Amino acid sequence: MAAAAAATKPEGLKLGFIGAGRMAESISKGVINSGLISPSNIRTADPSSDRRDAFTSFGVTVLESNSQVVDSSDVVVLAVKPQIVKRVVMDLKPHLSKDKLLVSIAAGIRLKDLQDWAGYGRLIRVMPNTPALIGEGASVMCLGEMATKEDQELVASLFKAVGKIWTADEKYFDAITGLSGSGPAYVYVAIEALADGGVAAGLPRDLALGLASQTVLGAAGMLNTGRHPGQLKDDVTSPGGTTIAGIRELERGAFRGTLMNAVVAATERSRELSES
């Protein structure tokens, strides 16, 4: 598994989104803010006036139909719910010519199925996560059999605009879903629990939540020093001090094992959905 390198600015590239949800919006804003693609070269379509208005508010072209989006785009991002991907791709098949790159961010939809439905293999599958909304996403991609090195670099550029992206074999995607796809929810639960602990210890709710959130953000940022999490933990853990007393309670409550089990359970569920 390797981190992907970004390509140079794709001059004149037209990027289309099938589905105008929050993830499509975050990717659009990311590539616009990075200067990678101008708003006028991004297009989407959606029956909801709220979603259309959301995209037109930052300059994206909103068309009448998904087929128009495909016809006028060089790269087409499938950003619809997994349960309707097959129908959407089959409907668009007449418009999916081999000169177009199809990128799917639909969870659990395998490249082989996409290839069967689309009728060709110039495909890339990406698993992003919700922090892409603030430019801190963790995404992983795998390539279809006909995708080129240039396609890989282009998709890397798009997703680097909303965070970091790695390349991995598709066989890892269920585990990736269980870790980074579902992982933000685990962290939110941890932040909420830390804040509740602060309230139980006597802190006002607003202060407790602010401290919990900033502590998690800062702790994650400390990993940029290149030090192992265990080393960073040891730095805060004095003999007989407050931190080791708290860690002892975490170990007593099987904190590590519970997090590990959460990732494994989400991975297994992802596998079930992929096979259904």
UniProtKB/TrEMBL annotation:
Q: Record's GO cellular component, any one?
A: cytoplasm
What positions does the entry give for NADP(+) binding? Answer: I18, G19, A20, G21, R22, M23, A79, V80, K81, P82
MF GO annotations? pyrroline-5-carboxylate reductase activity
User: Has the keyword ATP-binding been applied to this entry?
Assistant: no
Q: In which family does this protein belong, per the annotation?
A: Belongs to the pyrroline-5-carboxylate reductase family.
- Which pathway features in its UniProt record? Amino-acid biosynthesis; L-proline biosynthesis; L-proline from L-glutamate 5-semialdehyde: step 1/1
User: Taking the first listed entry, what is the main subcellular location of this protein, grouped into a coarse class?
Assistant: cytoplasm
Q: Which residues bind NADPH?
A: N66
SUPFAM superfamilies for the chain: 6-phosphogluconate dehydrogenase C-terminal domain-like, NAD(P)-binding Rossmann-fold domains
Biological process according to GO: L-proline biosynthetic process
Residue ranges of domain Pyrroline-5-carboxylate reductase catalytic N-terminal in the record? 14-108
Q: Which organism is it from?
A: Acorus gramineus (Dwarf sweet flag)
Compartment list: Cytoplasm
The Enzyme Commission number assigned here is 1.5.1.2
> What PANTHER family is this protein classified in?
PYRROLINE-5-CARBOXYLATE REDUCTASE, PYRROLINE-5-CARBOXYLATE REDUCTASE 3
What keywords appear on the UniProt entry? Amino-acid biosynthesis, Cytoplasm, NADP, Oxidoreductase, Proline biosynthesis
Q: Which HAMAP family match?
A: P5C_reductase
> What positions does the domain Pyrroline-5-carboxylate reductase dimerisation occupy?
170-273
Keyword NADP carried by entry = yes
Catalytic activity, reaction form: L-proline + NAD(+) = (S)-1-pyrroline-5-carboxylate + NADH + 2 H(+); L-proline + NADP(+) = (S)-1-pyrroline-5-carboxylate + NADPH + 2 H(+)
Q: What is this protein called?
A: Pyrroline-5-carboxylate reductase
